[in-house]
């Protein structure tokens, strides 16, 4: 080792500016190669894992589950999504997917089928839903595709709906499942999120009935979640203490999908 480099690795030596730069460079390269090695090892491990029934590789699923555990702790009915005046709502509202909307709807025969804890089914018409107090929600709708848009929706608060139809035993459970009439799309949602004060069973957009491509006659609007949870054209609602099946969870996304 030359006289120039000896002080660099001595704890007692006072370094000049050139030696200090070299020392920091050596340390930086050391950690770079360590992190690069760890990343390469992780990539090789991930690459050789098979995709599970949960839609992704186990290592990624573990990361998603850890994120879910953290973000679910932050959910509170005291924390509301930011709302906006109606003047800021988009006139042309984007559609975030067509799953569950690809079959023709028989609107005259549509019913919201609520499967109760005891197995009975409550079959409701739109008149049954619209007779409850209406609530408007104008918020920044966010899609997992990376876009967002201020949108104006109206319908019945889920908490008002549950109270009106005596779903006390049902909302004491851990999860709710929602399914389209053709069963082409389905979501599972944790009960604290569905009971959030801004969650509505929605039947209007910009003061008009929902268009077909936005989930007519009834959809879910849940501002504490990404758009993949805002199921369009609700056909069946049920409750469980186990996680209900979820369309995008099965395709590799996290179950909570919270904001």
Structure commentary:
With 259 residues, the protein is an alpha+beta fold. The protein folds into 2 domains: 6-47; 58-251, Alpha-Beta Complex (Sulfite Oxidase, Chain A, domain 2). 26% of the residues lie in helices and 20% in strands. It has helices at residues 17-47, 58-74, 126-130, 158-164, 168-171, 191-194, and strands spanning 112-115, 121-124, 135-142, 148-157, 175-179, 186-190, 200-205, 208-209, 219-221, 236-240. A 5-stranded mixed beta sheet has the order 2-1-10-5-6. Strands 3, 4, 7, 8 and 9 form a 5-stranded antiparallel beta sheet that branches. The protein is elongated, with a radius of gyration of 26 Å. The model has no long low-confidence stretch (mean pLDDT 87).
Topology:
Elements (H helix, E strand, L loop, with lengths): L16 H31 L10 H17 L37 E4 L5 E4 L1 H5 L4 E8 L5 E10 H7 L3 H4 L3 E5 L6 E5 H4 L5 E6 L2 E2 L9 E3 L14 E5 L19
Parallel strand pairs: 1-10
Antiparallel strand pairs: 1-2, 3-4, 4-7, 5-6, 5-10, 7-8, 7-9
CATH topology of the largest domain: Sulfite Oxidase, Chain A, domain 2
Find the structural class using helix and strand composition: alpha+beta
As laid out across the biggest beta sheet, the strand order is: 2-1-10-5-6
H-E string: HHEEHEEHHEEHEEEE
Number of helices: 6
Number of strands: 10
**Total individual domains:** 2
Distance between the termini: 56 Å
Largest sheet: 5 strands, mixed
- The overall average pLDDT, rounded, is 87
What is the general shape? elongated
Which range best describes the helical content: under 10%, 10-25%, 25-40%, 40-55%, 55-70% or over 70%? 25-40%
